[in-house]
Task: structure prediction
Amino acid sequence: MHELTWGMPVIAYLFMAGLGAGALTTSASVLLRGGQSGKYFSIARYGAFIAPIPVALGSALLVFELGSFQAGHWFRFLNLYTVINLSPMSIGTWLLTIFLGISVLYAFTFLSKDACPGDKQDGLRRLAAWVGIPLGIGVAIYTGVLLGAMPARPFWNSPVLAMLFFLSALSTGVASIILVRALLHRKHASAQAEAHYHESGYILSATDTLLIGLELLAIFLFLMYAHLTIGSVREAATVILAGGELSVLFWFWVVVLGLLVPGIIELAILVPSIVYHRAYRSHRVIEILVPVVVLVGGFMLRYVVVIAGQITHPIGL
Amino acid sequence: MSKKLKTTQQSRRGFLKGVGAAAAAVGASATPVQAVAAITEPKKRYGMLIDTRRCVGCHACSVSCRSENNVPEGKHRSWVEYTEKGTFPNATLHFLPRLCNQCSDPQCVSVCPTNATHIRDDGIITVDADVCIGCKYCIHACPYDARFLNPETGAVDKCDFCLDRLEQGKEPACVATCFNRARIFGDLNDPDSTISRMVASNAVSVLRPGMGTLPNVFYIGLDYADEHDIRFPRQYIRVTTHRDENIRR
Result:
């Protein structure tokens, strides 16, 4: 077993970059989907403020993890900006840098206290949203491609991994918006505003539930892809299957706690609205607990994947 | 046929001479002779052939590599794996010297985000320690665990066939020190070199050919068993790598 060359900073980065990219993608989609009416503007605003923070923190963590930084060459990481090549890390660096700039610009357009649809910043905001969506998707996907590009790491070398990370990024991004929104929520004076709050809560929960379902599907495909083959990939996947070193971490923390529990709770709350067209009502406790477990699950997914990829090897010489 | 081939070669050489002279005329720094030599000299492809039947596991190569390249403690550019296989009386102990495979299609190079790792014209893959940021991506990408982070430079380090010795016209330290001549070093593009003749006239194999990396380190008498095979034993196997204290046994 080789020592873990990519440790906690990389795991935290993969989670945080995904979260930020997901938050921006969600925010910008909601903003553009709302059209000129500015429906769900508040969701877009929360997402815009969340997005740059985890991405900036995560990227900073990455720099601390670099060998050159630890050896005292503090600014050598700038060498990343002297090159554009087809290394997923090079592509990712540029995506991430542009993403950070755009997401800060996007958040800036929401900064004014009376920011509203159609205000002075509207054109800039919509432009940043149009640019931000592909960038957010790019950042979310590249984290999976980064790991998936190497046959020498059979656990990561799966085409499903990038899709899984992408879905998880969107899901944690939506969850972070739900969480921040619930934490900052004050009961509205008017019944209309309160109803609107719950309506946008419905959109977020429904999106999150859908993403959780797709994530479960991606995990199923990931396991099938690994398990129905022979050789390195199959042997590598045994670490997360029953009896493997990471099986409890994976099945309990990622699948049950991170996906099934929030998915079932959200579904139970959503069903009356979807099937019987009742007005969607959620409890604040649930609106806080569900995204928390989704975020924990998203982090544990990165944790399990990054560790599993490093403790497994190709078989044979 | 061969005569025809010869004439084509000659005419190509003549053509290249012309090009070389033209290039020299344009670039004032190069003399015509140098320019012609640079163009007409065939590209080298350095490689190594390791005859594991001749290896006795003495670690002379490991030791000379450490002293030659100033390898930090606990890290290894070159190492020898001991594999014990089977049970008495049907048992064997054999040795597998390991080093960077200097692949022709190296993934470490394709994942490097700063181009610090690059493949030279002579096929040797080097890391420019002043450019490398130590992101460790290439350590993961290498199927041979040949790379490590040098804590002193903060850059990734690995075997480069003792580049500074090659420039002085010497063989790599591990080759020079191998008393049993288990290591043969040379230019694989030169059909008359010892290594080319040995590779052509023996059954040779490379490590993990399925990775598609096209290694330039060849082995005679390579066995299937390695440290990771211990998890799926088909028979008794014990591998000692002398490399990593955390190795799974």
User: Anything to note?
Assistant: The first strand of chain B starts at residue 46 and ends at 51.
